[in-house]
Amino acid sequence: MTLDDGQVVTCGDDNRVMLFDSTNKQYVRGGKISDKKMKDPTKKGLASTQSGMPPNKQARTVAVSKKHSHLVVCNNLGKVSIRSFDDFDKKIGSLKDAKHWCEVAKYSPCEEYLALGSHDNHVYIYHIDSETHEYSLYAKDARNHAWINAIDWTVDSKHLRTSSGDYEVLYYNLEEKSGDAHGSQTVADKVWATNTVKYGDDRQGI
Question: Model-level pTM?
Answer without folding.
Answer: 0.92
